[in-house]
Amino acid sequence: QVQLVESGGGLVQAGGSLRLSCAARGSIFGIRTMAWYRQAPGKQRELVANITSGGSTNYADSVKGRFTISSDKIKQTVDLQMNSLNPEDTAVYFCNADLRDSIAYRWLTYWGQGTQVTVSS
After folding, report:
1. Does residue 1 register a pLDDT over 90?
2. 35-64 burial, b for 16+ CB within 10 Å, e for fewer?
3. How far apart are CA 103 and CA 80, in angstroms?
4. Which of 19, 53, 63, 104 is the most buried (most CB within 10 A)?
5. Which residues does 118 contact at the CB level (< 8 Å), separation at least 6?
6. What is the pLDDT of residue 94?
7. 112 near 48, Cβ under 8 Å?
C-alpha cells in the first residue's frame, strides 16, 4: 500500500519558480533516499536531484544553483524548489524513493505518477 503522491506541477514563465512536493504514504519503516527525476518528450528519464536520510544532496549539472531539494523525515516528504526555470526544464517530473516497508521489511524503490512542468518562453 506504499505510494508516492506528487503535487505542484504546472505552467510557469521562463525565469519563474515552482515548488514540487512528494509525500510517501503507507506502512513505511524508513526511507533511505528520496529523489526527483524528469523525462522530457523523446528523451530518457534523468536524475534531477536526490537527498539521503543524512541530508546529503546531489544535483544534475543542469540544475545546480537553481534547484533545491529538501526533505522532512517526520512528514516523510520531499520537495523540489525550482528557480530560474527555462524551457529546457519542461518535462514530467517523477518522485522516487528507496524505502523499507514495515510489513515485508525489504528495501524497495517506488515511483510517483509524475507531474507535468511546462516552462514557457
Report:
1. no
2. bbbbeeeeeeeeebbbbeeeeeeebeeebe
3. 29
4. 63
5. 10, 11, 12, 90
6. 98
7. no
